[in-house]
Amino acid sequence: VLRDRRPRNCPPGQVEIPFFGRLPFFDEKTAERLRTTYGDVVSCRTGSFRTVMLFDYHTAKEVMARPEFSDRPNFFSSFSLDDQKTGGVFSSNGVHWQHDRRFVLRNLRNLGMGRSYLEEAINIEAKALVEDLKKYGGEAINYPDSFRTVALNIIWQMVASTRYDLRSREVETIYRLTKDFQNNFSVLSFLPAFIPALNRLPKFFKNCLFGDDGLMNFVDEMRKVVNETVDKHLEDYDPDNPRDLIDEYIKDMKESEGDDSSLFRRGALNQIVSDLFGAGSDTVNYQLKWVAYLLARYPEYATRMQQQIDAVVPRDRMVSLDDKPSLPLVEAFTVEMLRYSSMLVFNVQRSATRDANISGYFIPKGTMVVIANYSIHHDPRYWDDPHKFYPERFLDDSATKYTAPKQGFFAFGSGRRQCVGELLARMELFLFTAAIVQHFDVRPADGVDLSQEVIVNLGGLRAPADNKLIYRPRN
Ligand code: HEM
């Protein structure tokens, strides 16, 4: 019990039950309560993990930039598809992370991230999305799977040269398993990660208590998809014609054959592919649900965006990135959507690699560091009327120019582990939002009241609850 106590000069926090700590939480309300009671730096503990939560933007920026807070917690690698559990970008650490992150950034850039020629690929998906939504013929529908497939198609073409038809059966298994996992998800699902001893429970109990099977089935299916994709690339590999990120990796792997110190390994490649599949498609999918929800809830913004688009883009042409300066409200709408939705309630966890100090408090090695993104995005110190959806906050006084947020914005994290897909995600959100607005009036179905914002929280991922919306083609 003594060893388990909160160390001296640790940040303040709730009373902790010895050995167990407190149940993990993933919602913004609990975080806000902690901030109100204990201030901008709060500590809490679940099982063997102590967490420090930061609520102040400037402290968060400074801490995320420090090398001693660049690691992810070890439990992230539990589900790694790498047999050595060290490779990949999202969950890896140290030299393996540096190596794989550098590879991914270089290749995403070479494959068009942030460049206008990727726009063509995004607009092919945008057109496919428009056609898919038209097929519903004005029927009221939940958020369609095509939101996910268009996002998946962009990243999957860069990674594996593969594009799925928006109504293809091939992606259905993955989507079904994701939904099964999400339906069985509860706060308890994460307990074994925090209290490793629970992993020793018999499988039957683990499944009943933590819904283990759903997660494992999903991981197994991902492993199958990734293995098949990489195997096929190895079979067809032509060193003179690398087609995508997997081929580029195979090229480096072949060139370093015989070098035992090389970090180009099949296991690491598998994990990189899986990271990009998940981080590159689910994120944009959930943000597109928010776009649709907010368009239906605030049609006045949709109308104003339509006026801006109609003034510069003929209806038979898709909006392009060159149109951006003429469409400041579209950009302001997507950035306000990122802030307002705060899809990730907390930034992805980091871990202290050594004993450290934050704002004068002692932070023991191994402490998880979490940034309260939702709280920062709704903090009146940085935002006027923070709970109001107000895209104008990102327009200049004449409302003719987009102005980027200067502080208080954390949607893509910060520092050495900042999102590698930010440029890509911003391009996608701008072009997909513009495509939906240009072609549809999005409205709630009869009887659906969007003012009661009902949120589904999946382990810290906030999404609007399924709402029947109508995508009515514009004349
Ligand atoms: C709107 C969509 C997206 C949001 C809101 C988002 C947000 C984030 C956040 C908050 C982090 C953690 C950063 C940190 O620790 O400070 C992250 C990491 C990451 N994101 Fe994104 N992301 C999005 C889209 C994408 C896309 C399209 C890709 C695909 C290329 C991607 C790939 C990654 C990867 C690989 C990491 C891990 C980086 C590392 O640990 O070094 N993300 N993202």
Automatic annotation (TrEMBL):
One of its GO terms (biological process) is xenobiotic metabolic process. Coiled coil: none annotated. Heme binds at residue 419. Keywords: Endoplasmic reticulum, Heme, Iron, Membrane, Metal-binding, Microsome, Monooxygenase, Oxidoreductase, Signal. The keyword Membrane applies. It is a peripheral membrane protein. PANTHER family: CYTOCHROME P450 15A1, CYTOCHROME P450 508A4-RELATED. Transmembrane segments: none annotated. This is Cytochrome P450 2L1-like. Its cofactor is heme. GO terms for molecular function: heme binding; iron ion binding; oxidoreductase activity, acting on paired donors, with incorporation or reduction of molecular oxygen, reduced flavin or flavoprotein as one donor, and incorporation of one atom of oxygen; steroid hydroxylase activity. Belongs to the cytochrome P450 family. GO terms for cellular component: endoplasmic reticulum membrane. May be involved in the metabolism of insect hormones and in the breakdown of synthetic insecticides. It is found in: Endoplasmic reticulum membrane; Microsome membrane. The gene is LOC108682013. It holds the Pfam family p450.
